[in-house]
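User: We ran a pulldown and think these components assemble together. Before we commit to crystallization trials, I'd like a predicted model of the whole complex to look at. Sequences follow.
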Amino acid sequence: MNINDIISSVSEHDPEIYGRLDTRRQAMRSFAGIGKKLTLASIPLALSAMFQKAYGQTTTTPAILDTFNFALTLEYLEYRFYQKAVDTTNLIPLGAQLTAITSIRNNEQAHVNFLKATITKLGGTPVAEPTFDYSAGKGSGNGPLKAVFTDYATFLAVAQTFEDTGVRAYKGQAGNLLGQGDLLEAALNIHSVEGRHASHIRQMRKLNNFGTVKPWITGNDPGVGSANSLVQPSYDGEDNTVQAGVSIVNIGGKGTSATAASESFDEPLTKSQVLAIVNPFIVS
Amino acid sequence: MKETQKNETMVSDNFSFMQKGFHRREFIRYSGLAGAAIATGLTLDACSKDTSISSNGVNFGTGDYVILNFAYALEQLEAAFYTKLISSPYSGMSAAELTLLTDVRDHEIAHREFFKAALGSNAIQDLTINFASIDFTSRDNVLNAAKSFEDLGVSAYNGAGRYIKDANYLTLAGKIVSVEARHAAYIRDLISNGSFADSSVIDANGLDTSRKPSVVIAMASAYITTKLDASTLPA
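Assistant: Here's a predicted model for the assembly, 519 residues in total across the polymer chains.
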């Protein structure tokens, strides 16, 4: 069996093998360069190194694509939510509030487009936009949040929950992008925008007297009154006051309260926690 | 508090300096100036065993400590700013503003103290901060400075993430940066309601701003009297 036979037999299982090897020209070159000097016995080792170079990146890419497609699903959820709200007459008061929600809608739409383009550029396929049921009724349209597009307070409560959850979701995925340079940076650049949105939505709720919330999350309190129990999983764990084994309460003898300690750090959510939270909103 | 206010006016009009971009060439020029002017600014405290100072200034260390010390320096700056802001409130500060700006101060102190504790003997020294260019009696002046600090902080964490090698540190940076983003949005809305994520910080892809650590330190140095050695920071 010669090298060409090996590659062509791999190609039966991986039709893209030639492309992979070809796009890793350096791997090919270095193999060709050292090939002359190799003894027959050492060729399998060199060949193995070449395949590792060819496949090395693709062993991590599926995880990265999964992460970005997960993020894309959340961005679809947010974008379509704000789009429907903006399209609903008499839901959002005209003026500053409609302007703000429209601006957030635009950011989420830009995130959707950016993530789709990034996934495609990485050789992946962007997931299609799901069908959403913002009543949290799993398609019935009659879930516990059925007033979401008729009652402004409910709408803003759901908006706050989506933004706070989005912040936590991106944070939970950062580790999957460790060392990924521009890809990690882009995810961080979306993450902080969600934080800005969350802050503004919370201020809007306060100004409308819909809740006593602050721009930051206090303890594990959702701050959405009667809807608290519905959205509690989005806030569970936010009352953490120990970071990297260091207790933040009164740290350094500076009088930091438990409230401030919880507010000063946002907490991540795992992918499965986030999927459980958004599940009632996703029909298919 | 340790953040003694010195009256050095080495960099005039720091505020517009921060608001505009800051280019590497200016940074190098500024570093040279700082080197000449600040060498005598270090206190005895600064010479404790836990600090690494050479004639080049405070060194941030190696590996992930570089980024953690970088964050610690920024949090020292922010904590000092809000401590001063709350100790001498601008005229016309509303009760609601006092409450939330006090929260922000407490968050920044928590961040600062966290890095100090987490870094332990690897922590840089307490930095000497100089806010002479900020008029703390003026709401506009103070809030615009706060906006610059918060936006700078967000861009700093966003730009530093790629250099972190330990996933736990990356998550920690993430836990802090979203709180800075909440602060930034709040301050921006205080200045102009609705400017929480405007096009001065968010691009056409809906992405927030990132800045390289060396650029951030150059901008922050306008308010830091202690000489910093940015040589180990990613350029």
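Chain B touches chain A through 53 residues (CB under 8 Å). That may be worth checking against your pulldown data before setting up trials.

User: Thanks, that helps.
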